[in-house]
Amino acid sequence: MLVIVVENVPPALRGRLAVWLIEVRAGVYVGNLSKKVREMIWSQVNEGLEGGNAVLVWSTNTENGFDFLTLGKNRRNPVEFDGIKLVSFLPLEDGQNEIEWSENDTKF
Fold first, then answer.
1. Quick one: average pLDDT of 72-101?
2. What per-residue string of b and e applies to 24-62 under the rule 16 or more CB within 10 Å gives b?
3. Distance (Å, rounded) from C-alpha 15 to C-alpha 64?
4. Is 12 a residue whose pLDDT tops 80?
């Protein structure tokens, strides 16, 4: 199984992804394709990304049971730690605010 999530990409790229995958939510594509097709789709995402960003997640035989790749500018940065791929958050840019919780909000 593989999942591709895109943000701020051109409609042409979204249409191209919809040819191969099912769009289960806006910008979230799911499918079960071979490695060769997965690599072909990811190269098309790379070519058509423009100013957006994307992440590709697929099932594989690792400790986590999956692997992932990212493209484009995003606050989340993949980092390998002791053979396991994790996600590190880059600092906020000027003008960005963290979500502030009030007493009535539920925290997870």
1. 71
2. eeebebebeeeeeebeebbeebeebbeebbbbbbbeeee
3. 31
4. yes
Domain spanning 2-89, CATH class: alpha beta
Sorted by sequence, the CB contacts under 8 Å of residue 88 that are 6+ apart come out as 76, 77, 78, 79
Domain-wise residue ranges, the chain = 2-89
Cα distance between residue 101 and residue 80, in whole Å? 31
Task: Give residue-wise pLDDT tens across range 30-64.
Answer: 999 999 999 999 999 999 999 999 999 999 998 88
Sequence-ordered list of residues with C-beta below 8 angstroms from that of 12, at least 6 positions apart, any chain? 48
